[in-house]
From TrEMBL, chains A, B:
Name recorded for this polypeptide: Pyrimidine/purine nucleoside phosphorylase
InterPro entries to which the protein is assigned, alphabetical: Ppnp, RmlC-like_jellyroll, RmlC_Cupin_sf
Gene that this polypeptide is encoded by: ppnP
Transmembrane segments: none
PANTHER family registered for this protein in UniProt: PYRIMIDINE/PURINE NUCLEOSIDE PHOSPHORYLASE, PYRIMIDINE_PURINE NUCLEOSIDE PHOSPHORYLASE
Record field: catalytic activity: inosine + phosphate = alpha-D-ribose 1-phosphate + hypoxanthine; thymidine + phosphate = 2-deoxy-alpha-D-ribose 1-phosphate + thymine; uridine + phosphate = alpha-D-ribose 1-phosphate + uracil; cytidine + phosphate = cytosine + alpha-D-ribose 1-phosphate
Length: 104, 104
């Protein structure tokens, strides 16, 4: 699916890490929420409230998921899941375009 | 208006200047198109096809409009217009969140 139809977009961007990570909140008619975001190269740590599915649309990252020791290399077209109420570390190797879905 | 309702969002970001400028395309039911974007600090030159209204949602820029010699300082809440088929120079002083409307 290359477009989200019949959605609501919050105009102002969400900004993190001095604007190195930014996103737009997309609200769906069924109550689902996703964010479409950009991560500039760098290393970040994100906490989660809900379970998240991070879909990498373009770019290249390495991710250390909670409770794991090995970094996963993830590129455009791949995704990863992060449990609710946890955190993950991410190394952004190239400017990365992502879509984050919040579940539950 | 803080949200755009009943719109279509193109999932993949538009990327310019090695990702220092990125945006999402928002399509409205009446055929209007806007982009919601982020500009990282730097100096850029953009060409226009249609007339554009650039609304600065947050951040700080200086703009040199076509045919002018003076740079305009523009911050969050302000906007500027650029004629169709022209170009403008922009100095982004802080990470800047913008909404661009394409007219005509």
């Amino acid at each position: 699916m290359s477009k989200f139809e019949n959605v609501t977009v919050v105009k102002k961007a969400n900004m993190y890490f001095d604007g190195k990570v930014t996103s737009r909140t997309i609200e769906f008619a069924n109550g689902d929420v996703k964010t479409l975001g950009i991560m500039m190269p760098g290393e970040y740590r994100f906490g989660t409230d809900k379970k998240e599915i991070m879909e990498i649309l373009a770019g290249q990252v390495e991710v250390l998921l909670p409770g794991e020791d090995l970094w996963h290399k993830i590129g455009g077209g791949d995704s990863f899941e992060v449990p609710a109420n946890s955190a993950f570390d991410i190394k952004v190797l190239d400017v990365t375009d992502y879509c984050c879905s919040y579940l539950g």
